[in-house]
Amino acid sequence: MSQVVTRIAPSPTGSMHIGTARTALFNWLYARGRNGKFYIRIEDTDRKRSTPEATEVILNGLNWLGLDYDDEIVSQFERAPRHIEIAHTLLKNGKAYKCFSTSDEIQEFKDAARKKGTSTLFKSPWRDADPSTHPNSSYVIRIKSPENGETIVKDEVQGEVTFKNNQLDDMVLLRSDGSPVYMLAVVVDDYDMGVTHVIRGDDHLNNAARQNLIYRAMEWQLPIYAHIPLIHGEDGKKLSKRHGATSIEEYQQIGYPSSAMRNYLARLGWSHGDQEFFTDLQALEWFDLKGIRKSAARFDLKKLQNLSGQHINATDDAALLHEIHKFLSSNNKLVLSDEKTKLLKDAFYCLKNNVKTFSELIDKASFIFLDIPIPMSPEASSFIDEYSIEMLKTLTPQLHNVTWSRGDLEQVCNDCAESFGVKFGKLASPLRAVLSGQTRTPSVFDMMLVLGRDETIARLENAEGY
Ligand code: GLU
Is residue 7 lining ligand 1, measured as CB closer than 6 Å? Predict the structure, then answer.
């Protein structure tokens, strides 16, 4: 088989829906897993919506998802002359015709058909008209669809889908102002781009039947189709804002790693056995059209969060630091000094587990980013009283000489608690409060190990003044 060529053909809308992201991912995986090409075509014929900013949003989304593309981005709008040329070729070859019917005439046809109870699909009187009878008025160019028989769309996901030809009208290819219609543009672009596999949402399945007519009229080889079921929310309804975040940018901002998003989106409608967690390399090796399910996929936030946690945990420290920096800078959240960056990296071992997003990891690391005096939450302050300050005052001098290891720190803290006749927990809560100002943090020993002796003692001494 010749080289696989796939494409994503988004219409700019101002955001990148996760359905578009998933379609892009499927096309990318299919092509890249087979040494094929993956192209981007911006379907920018709606000039009002097609701003450079709207295209930028799509490119940013693809870039964040790590879906690289080949060659130049194709603009559908700029290819209009080529679409027009094909409409004229069809006209010349007798596969299309000029239709002079006015919109009033078409309406009359439909009203009459409705009254008679016959099909309202417009049948133009100009289909077989002799050109010598053509008036000197404006016209559209329509394709001559077959009047009988069936059009079968062979689809890798949906199977063979049959459309009765008498249900397909002679669709317009060129409007009366000479502009090409979307359906023609898609076919001509896919053909010229050498697209071998059209993988897209199943809301385009009906279009495939009509697009087939153009392929056949031009005697072009049809691409292989895979129409993938749309994404639904947990209630089984089409995914919309009501269900939460629907655009890829929102997931980026919440702090999901792109590796987790790729993993999750790949699983949304496709499976490889019962494998839930996988790497990019595995996805590239495994992805195929056979594994795409026919029923709608349900977006399951818990599953995404769970995979996200696994990806964060599995990322090596250098790569994780890089990702966190990108996350923080794209959100204008925090600028980390070199010193804090080093501490953060040292702390990854106790931060990486049990977090679902980068935001959660940053929250968990907040003890690192603070400077004395440590601001304290009301919950944390509730652990500070005369008695606990006494304990901390006893503990602090002992920290000067202890070896800065987990075992020795545990020993010193336990001994201190015991000398007050309390369990270690009674000391841990105020200690946690003065080290972090919070009540939910990594363990006090992890915090002490990460902060180091000087900073730990400085925080304790500062707190003793309460
Ligand atoms: N522009 C269409 C969309 O955004 C995609 C068309 C296609 O893939 O053929 O849904």
Answer: no
User: What residues make up the domain containing 252?
Assistant: 5-74+232-304
* Distant-in-sequence, close-in-space partners of 160: CB < 8 Å, separation ≥ 6: 152, 153, 154
List, for residues 449-461, the tens digit of each pLDDT value: 999 999 999 999 9
Task: Kindly state if the Cβ of 24 falls inside 6 Å of ligand 1.
Answer: no
Ligand 1 centre to CA of 9 (Å) is: 5
- CATH code: domain of residue 461: 1.10.10.350
Same domain, 91 and 191: yes
Tens digits of per-residue pLDDT, 249-290? 999 999 999 999 999 999 999 999 999 999 999 999 999 999
Distance 199 CA to ligand 1 centre (A): 10
Closest atom of ligand 1 to 207 CA is 9
- Supply the pTM of this predicted model: 0.93
Q: What angle do CA 310, 311, 315 make, to 5 degrees?
A: 120
206, exposed or middle or buried, with CB in 10 Å at 0-12, 13-18, 19+? middle
